[in-house]
Design brief:
137 residues; alpha/beta; Oxidized Rhodanese, domain 1; two-stranded antiparallel ribbon; globular; Rhodanese-like domain-containing protein; Rhodanese-like_dom_sf; Rhodanese-like_dom
Length: 137
């Protein structure tokens, strides 16, 4: 079974601040949350969940990922939107949650920072570049 699909950062923001009680899970590392920033849902009265897909430091897979997301409030049938730096880890996380019977699980394309521009800076897409609320971790 595949995950529910890909959505833009703006579509994800609308969903996680909307009436369906959807959950946003940022699957980046603690270092990324601290030094790059995090999505800020406080204006909607909601909070994102922060669960590493890969452990930092070292990058080992988080064997407890599904259980940690459950502990953050995800139940079967509750929509979940997964966010990483660029949309790769979050896709794998969406597939894992779907395989565990959770979701529907959506991958946020371009992630928090988006892809590189020709000068190798992350200015082309993602949550931050879409002008969505964020704060320094």
């Amino acid at each position: 079974m595949s995950y529910a699909g890909d959505v833009s950062p703006t579509e994800a923001y609308d969903a996680v601040t909307g009436p369906d009680e959807a959950l946003l899970v940022d699957v980046r590392t603690e270092a990324e949350w601290t030094f790059v920033g995090v999505p800020d849902l406080s204006g909607s009265g909601r909070q994102a969940a922060f669960v590493e897909w890969n452990r930092w430091p070292g990058g080992a897979p988080n064997e407890g990922f599904v259980d940690e997301v459950r502990a953050a409030g995800l139940e079967p049938g509750r929509p979940v939107y997964l966010l990483c730096r660029s949309g790769v880890r979050s896709l794998a996380a969406a597939e894992a949650l779907t395989a565990a019977g959770l979701g529907p699980a959506y991958n946020v394309t371009d992630g928090f920072e988006g892809p590189h521009d020709p000068a190798h800076h992350r200015t082309l897409g993602g949550w931050k570049n879409a002008g969505l609320p964020w704060r320094q971790g």
